[in-house]
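seq:
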Amino acid sequence: MSESYVKRLFTILLDAVTDKDPQVQEQVCGALCALGESQPEEALRACEEHLRLHDKLAHPYRTMILRVMETVVSSHLGELDKGLARASILLASSEMTKVKELVCDWQQAASNVLVALGKRFISSVMEEILSKFQPGVLPHHFVVQTLANLSVSNVFGVVPFLTSILSTMLPMLSAAKPDSMRVVFCCALQRFSESTLEYLADLDQAPDPTVRKDAFATDIFSAYDILFHHWLQSREAKLRLAVVEALGPMSHLLPSEKLEEQLPKLLPGVLGLYKKHAETVHVSRSLGQILEAAASVGSRTLDVQLDSLLAALHAQICVPVESSSPLVMSNQKEVLRCFTVLACCSPDRLLAFLLPKLDTSNERTRVGTLQVVRHIINSAAAQMEVKQPFILSSMKLPLLDTNSKVKRAVVQVISAMAHHGYLEQPGGEAMIEYIVQQCALPPEAEPQKLGANSEALAADSVRAISVSTLYLVSTTVDRMGDVLWPYLFEFLVPVRFTGALTPLCRSLVHLAQKRQEAGAHALLIQYNGNVTLPSPYAMATRLLAVSSSPYLGDGRGAASLRLLSVLHRDIHPMLGQRWATAIPLLLEHLDGYTEETLSRKEWEEKLLMFLRDTLAVVSDNTWICQLSLEMCKQLPSYNGTPLEKNFLYKCIGTTLGAASSKEVVRKHLQELLETARYQEESEREGLACCFGICASSHLDDTLAQLEDFVKSDVFRKSAGIFNIFKDRSENEVEKVKSALILCYGHVAARAPRELLLARVESDIFRNMSQCFSTKVLGIKVETKDLGLRLCLAQSVCMASQAVRSSSHGSSFQLLRKPELVAQMMPVLWPRAIPRLLPQEFIKAEPSDSLRTPMRKKAMLACTYLVSLEPALEGQAQADLIHSCLHSIMAVLPEPEGVDSHQEHLSPWIKSPRGHERVRALGLSACLLQHFLKHLHISIIGKRLPPDQLISLLLTLFEGLGDPDQNCSRAAAVIVNCLLKERGHVLLEKVPEIVSVLCSKLQETHGEHVLQAAQHSVYVLAARHHAAVVSSLLGSPLPFDSHTCTLWRALAVEPGLATQVLGLLLEKMSGDVPFKESRAFLLSSAPDRVATLPPLAATCALYEVASAPASGPAVLELYPQLFAALLLRVSCTVGVQLPRNLQAKERKSASSGLASRSLEPCSSAVDALQAVLLRGGNDDVVQRMELEGGWQLLRTSAGHEEGVTRLASAMAKFAGPRLPLMMKALFATQSSVYEMQRVSSTAFLAELLSSNTVNDLMLLESLLDNLLARQKDTCARVRRLVLRGLANVASGSPDKVRAHGPQLLTAMIGGLDDGDDPHSLVALEAMVGLARLLDLVEAWDLRSVLLHVAIRIRPFFDSEKVEFRSASIRLFGHLNKACQGDCEDVFLEQLVGGLAPLLLHLQDPQPPVAAACRFALRMCGPNLECEELAAIFQKHLQEGRGLHFGEFLNTTCKHLMHHFPDLLGRLLSTSLFYFKSSWEDIRAAAPMLTGFLALHVEAERRPQVDLEQLLAALQLLLKDPAPAVRVKAAETLGRLVKFA
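struct:
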């Protein structure tokens, strides 16, 4: 039985080879190979028999079977007996030579079988092959190919045959006419030569050590003669390449004298092929082999041919390399290999050829030459060692080349030089400097590199490769340590190397650490008279200055600080301990920020604190003075980087502040004043900061130096009278003055408070004023320069604040206060002090903009000055206030009437300034009171007879549209007075009055008319609200804007608004919401058309609730409004407008006039939103908007979800209002409208998911109400009841246990609901049970456990994803609930569900697969198998990727080990899923079958019905889905275990 079973297995698979899908074919072959692993001989026999019996089987399928045979042979070569090997050899030979024509895939597969067998059965294979390799007969193409491949795969087995083979082959060469045969002969000769060379190289291990090269020389030369002199001349490119590939290894077997004889022809012949072929890698490879052969025999011909060789090879290396062309790159490697041979043979002539080519300006020539130079430096190091000076000197011109490709090549050459000692020679320093120069290149200076490889090229940019090279040379080449140290320090300070600071610092840090580890001197830098090295002061200054912009240049701040840290002894011996603490803190601060988030001000302050600590630790005046001198010396270097220069100024101020030598301080301050670039704003600010910081320690010296500068010739040269009229000179003077004034301001701000008061008047404010003013011909002239005025205002602010903050500031008498205030006032309002300044020098602040920096600074300065003593005199104080007010408040224009006054006063009434609002409101009140005094209408109203009253009113209504606005306003006032006095007698006239008002509003579009009409309707409604509401409801829909305005007028007074809303509620709920009609006789369902009265009432309710004044009324009726509108929304979903209104709606929509939709449901939703907003529940409206709830409410499909989201929002944000709202909704239980019952049930159900219900003690009443709805005729209501009951698990989990029996009974009833054709109630019950099971009493659960498990099992394979997901997840919860206490009857259900769960892991729907993961994790503990439980927990976690095959294999292994009795049930279940409607599960089912079969114990195998299984899998191999066929084939490969 076993033999027939295996044979049938092979037969099924071999028949399946003809499948049309490539993946299935591949898997079938894989299955055959898998069977072959277990039964190699049976596999080979089956394949041989199949090919023999199916002689007409197409060659692609024969090819696949032959490949299976090759795989089996290769894996089990040692197990095959000679008879089977002989049969396979004969079959493969027959298949290979069955047709004369070339069918490469088929014949190659057969050849590969022979080659695989030849590794062990070489004699048999050679016997068969040589039988078809007879003298005088041109053999089959693949006979020769097989011999060639055999010679390589079994060198020791074939080489002894080669002399015989070659003697047979040589006559064939002349007879071979087809190029294809010639090509294969060339290939054979190449392989024979290669195998011979390998044999000779390992002669000590060869079976016949007597074999010598001479034995092949004659035959090889004869073959060489034909190949070189005849075939190489062929026009067929493929043949020429085959010839040249053969000539390379053949040249090693030629006799020395023959090779020497042939070289003069051979070398030019091979070189000539470069011109004939685009792909030259084969030519270069062969040439390299020929050159190696020639060099090995010491050929003199190479010297003769050297020039032509060098020229040809150099031309090849200069071909531009495309990174996407591996052939070109391979060719260059082979060419470089040729150069290596020549460098070892003729180094002098090679360099004489190469080095002059470095002087050319051609990019390709120079780049190619540099590549060769780099290569020979590495590959011919011994020969090049004495040539180092010549190679170094030849690099002068390439170092000057600006081409990026040349630069990259130069850097690579320098890298090679570093590894071989070149840079230790004279001239090596120039190479290092070159690398540093390239590191300093700015990124934007690199040329643009566009195209597909732009990213790769960017990473390989000159700067990037230079940075990498510098670091690698510093860290990996030990001999470079003494070359780079301390030489690299010379590049730290010069500005042109700024871009290289980061890589320089990193390299220097590494080198310094290595020297410290090696036990270097206390000082790492030994100057020894080397004047080119920067001093410690220069290094400290440079590294500190560049650290102020820490993220520039790839993070130069951190790199600079790290270098400072390792150089602490060289900077100063005392700094080690302090810097060991301070610098890591600075680096940690940088790590916590990015370039965008770092505060520069905070970072600079930290660096200045670091500098102050350093100076304090050193406490050496000489050292500090030297440091300050170096800082001043480096200042000009930062002219191009203003931020860093500004910081360096602050460092100078800090350092001078720590110096004790007053002469040094004053000297440096003088130099700074004389050399500053005053035209730059940042420099003026930096200079001022420097003086301010310095003044904190040297106040007198700083002030004295400033005063000396003002009196000096340097300053006077710029301020002469003859320069005042020259714009440029004047501008320069103003900039100097600005800087000086700023200096005084910063000095005052930083000066010690105990010293400030004595000098602020005489030395600071006096000199500020002096710098600000200029005397021309004895006349004091104020400046017109905005920058100077800003500096003055800023400095006055700083100085005034400093005075105020001093301990005696409150009593200090600032005598210059009036003068300083006067200097500020022209800025605020030039007309305020016309006496002070000539008008032509005054530039007033712009009147059209309040927010100017000058106005703000001047007012701040005045604010600080006013707080100082002495107080301003009355007139001066009045002038100051007057100037400030006039500088910001425009003068009101002449009044033109009440409206005009209101228009002009409106901005002041809304002013953020309190005093402005007070004054504006007072003036407005006076104007209105004056206007009202002249109205005496009430007397007229009381005396007018009733019949004349209506006539008067109608006449006055006409006056509302009078073109004279005064007349119109008068008519409006009289109308409102009459309605107020006599409105009680106008009940019958209300419709007429409302109609007239509406028509008048349509005729007249004045705002005053609209306001008058609103007030009239309000007054009238106060007397007759029902009549007014009824009249307005009669207005045509949709309401026009005027009608909407009249509705909103009814909300002005809370009492009236409450009455109006009550009436509208009655109108909205008192009539049927829609009528049903059939648009077509044959339509399946009637259309629902809205009735007009409830629709009009809904629109009106929206308008009233939209008015802000309706808030109190809405709050009073909130529960009724909410419930009624929610029900209105529910019963208008899908309801249409009447046809006449549909036409109106379309017309208004197309014209763009419609502000709101009249669609019934949308209008109800809008009204509900308005009520919520007016009731103070803005957060509910916003939450619904964010979640899309309002849109859901409007649609039939989403309405239920919309109600749920609304209930959730109400529970969260409007909890206290729920009791009354619930009471209103409870009453809907008996509503005749199904949708109203659905909506109210959905709302109440969702409330149970919130704990608010429990907090308000509403849980019991809610549960009772929902349970009462269980028998509702509507399945949707019954479903929502179950959802609400399940929501208790979320809202009040602690109450579930108490209500457990009720809740479980309801859920079980839902599972058994037979009146729902779509089983949606059962679905809700499953979802609800899954939520409740963890919370109910175990005893309550035990009684229903089995019933639930049985009831949900059919849903595992439901066509609907929701049912599959819910039922499987509930199955998991059932397992979770009974973990550790699983009864046998339930265990039976668990075992029955195991296979479906495993297979549904491959369910096409992710929710179902996720449910299966959960269920299996829960099932694990109940199986009482720790290994399975652990596997389920490890592999099936949510969000983790699952390798299904690996997981299923492991699971089946443990199932068969621990539960072998389950085999039959699992297999039968698996076979059932072979017919699943889902492709993924049909594919998973045979996988489960295969893995079960793979791991079944031997004694259990008889339980498997192999016939049934094979029939099922054979049928599955014909499945329409390729993926299923693939898995069926894979499973068949695993069934070999049953053999």
